[in-house]
Amino acid sequence: MLRPPSVSGTRPSLATTNLGGPGSANNPRVISKKKEYYTVTALERNADTLRETFLAFAKQMKQAEEGAESIGHVLANWPHMFAIISSFAQTHEATTTALAEMADNQTAEDFPPTRLVRVEIDNMHGNK
Question: Which keywords label this protein (predicted)?
Fold first, then answer.
């Protein structure tokens, strides 16, 4: 299959006719469009940077929210802790009082005599 010859070589280029040929770099409209392009490109870069910053900030805020929630759960348990400590203190006080009363009521006959005995180790092994 043969293609027909290209006609692009015979027709004038659109780029050179619309932009004004070789002197188009000095064209005020082209300079204005270049400035506009560079400005829009810089704005897009800044917007991307700002977006990344906000996403990182949102991630940190999520972590702070989870930490605050954990602290809230701990603080919610404090009334229970005080109730347990109070209950333990009352039980401990009652036990201490009961033990003190028992100690006051005991006589010397309730305790066996304390005696220290010296045992020689050689006698325990059968005097080898």
Answer: Cell cycle, Cell division, Centromere, Chromosome, Chromosome partition, Cytoplasm, Cytoskeleton, Kinetochore, Microtubule, Mitosis, Nucleus
